[in-house]
Amino acid sequence: MDLLRACRGAWDTPDRSGDPVDLHDHGLQTAALLRRSHPADKELQVAGLVHDLGHLLFPGDDAGHADHAAEALRPLLGDRVARLVRLHVPAKRYLAAVEPARALSPQSALTLRAQGGVMGADEVRAFAADPEAEAAVTLRQADDAGKVPGLDAGVMEDWRPVLERVAAGAYARTP
């Protein structure tokens, strides 16, 4: 919770030239959208809440932020949340390939190149075959939509019970 609260006033770019909301509001908005569209999938919602923590942990590393976040979160929130967090960048690349007319925020369009650019045909097939591809695309779509300045998406403390439930499940599955 402390790390999530630290996202207030932290941005996806060190100079604040990126997306129009801070990481705190972006995480809340993304998670709220996923809660509405997938109310039973708590791990997906939590992935939405925490997917950009890599920007806080390693400021300026657009290409690696998903991997950094996934590695930091895996021990606490489990393999599936970490996998979805890791896949939210490949999901952007995938969507850029299969829906080329789909609009990205200016910052997402800018970072797409550093993150590997639009997927090629072989990458598209491999991504689509991943068992978590559909959930990762859903996360990406919520990520793209969760950038609205001034939108009230609730408070971080409301997510504590969900985070605790997901963390308890991850702990129960650890050998």
From TrEMBL:
InterPro entries per UniProt: HD_domain (IPR006674), OP_Dioxygenase (IPR052567)
- The HD domain extends over 25-93
Pfam families reported for this sequence? HD (PF01966)
Q: Which domain of life is it from?
A: Bacteria
Fetch the PANTHER family from UniProt: HD DOMAIN-CONTAINING PROTEIN, PTHR40202
User: What protein am I looking at?
Assistant: HD domain-containing protein
The species is Streptomyces goshikiensis
